[in-house]
Amino acid sequence: MKIFHNEWEKWVIIACILFLIFIGLSGCNHQMVPYETKMEYGTTDTDSKNDKLSEKRFITQTWRWKHD
Asked: What is the pTM of this model?
């Protein structure tokens, strides 16, 4: 069973793989850093089953690329 039909096909696939590796490695000089952090807390409406207030707490964080 032949994997490649032609010699040029083999070299095109090798070139594409090397190109993708190069693109993947060139992205390593960027870092993801936290951009904004939000904290929300409070109480919700009363629960009809036991007449207690429920607490709500949320932490939301956004990220951005840091260029060196």
From this structure: 0.38
